[in-house]
Amino acid sequence: MTDSTETVAPGAYMRAELDSQPETWERAVGMRAEQALLPTRGERVAVVGCGTSWFMAQSYAALRETAGFGITDAYAASEAFLDRDYDAVVALTRSGTTTEVLELVSDLKASGGGPRVIGVIGDETSPLVGLVDDAVLLPFADERSVVQTRFATTALALFRASLGEDLTQAIEDARVAIADVDPTLAGAEQYTFLGRGWTIGLAHEAALKMRESSQSWTESYPSMDYRHGPIAIAAPGRITWQFGVAPEGLDAQVAATGGRFVQHPIDPLADLARLHRVALDRALAKGLNPDEPRNLTRSVILDA
Predict the structure, then answer these.
(1) With 0-12 CB in 10 A as exposed, 13-18 as middle and 19+ as buried, what is 44?
(2) DSSP assignment, residue 233?
(3) Fewest C-beta in 10 Å: which of 31, 74, 161, 182?
(4) pLDDT tens per residue across span 62-110
């Protein structure tokens, strides 16, 4: 957490943390022993989290199931249906102190004989570490900024590597994307983020990141669903940002509205890292500090 006695520039923590993503991804890719703790091929799995972690859970679930590893469902921790004969539950959380996650895991362990619970956790001192059956710890990806960037993407890099993906190009794409950002991307009136398959989670996370960082008007949808109503919001001065491959003709349909269609031919996770930089730039241009965003704290801890 941020030390109130320190004096740092607004957004300094977020900038350092988002810039470090290629290095933390490389480290996660090399964590073979930790990857072996994750659910194996054929296991029926639920992945749970809150906020950003829920969106990364969605991406992991789509990737795992598409890769043929088995049925994989993603839930917000407060809305999880875990009485479906899961073999394993993966709890993803940066702080390890989020109330809904702690309550869910505590209930699972109290019931006895349930699925194996694996925690993927940023803070190695958190109470969740002692509750789960296996803990995958990513303290090097933990953050001081309230707005989460590298922990989320590093966890997803770990998940992707565990499924046998080669992230070499993604890491190189991220290095370039973070360093070379079109300054006009930060000046739109409104943003809509789109994805397909595993990148739907990235789209939802991108929208959340812009809202948290810069108090911006953002929306997110599956790409194919965008034309079923949401495209009505497209207009001059507004951006529709696609993560990964777009449906055929969507770019032309957005252009016809006068809106701007954005799509980068790079790994979608690297494109999310680019969006982090855009969110930071937009926040600073508005005089905001994304390290201490309005109405937010590092972890949501609810009163009993």
Answers:
(1) middle
(2) G
(3) 182
(4) 999 999 999 999 999 999 999 999 999 999 999 999 999 999 999 999 9
Q: What backbone torsions phi and psi does residue 134 show, to the nearest 5 degrees? A: -140, 135
Beta strands 190-195 and 45-49, pairing class = unpaired
CA distance 287 to 10: 9
Residues 192-204 pLDDT 10s: 999 999 999 999 9
Q: Cα dihedral sign for 176, 182, 187, 191? A: negative
Angle between helix 168-179 and 21-29 (nearest 10): 170
- Residues 83 and 181 occupy one common structural domain: no
Rounded CA-CA distance 188/275 in Å is 13
Structure tokens at 64: 């795992």
Contact 23, 140 (CB under 8 A): no
| Same structural domain, 217 and 100 | no
Taking alpha carbons only, the member of 48, 170, 211 closest to residue 120 is 48
CATH number of the CATH domain containing 73: 3.40.50.10490
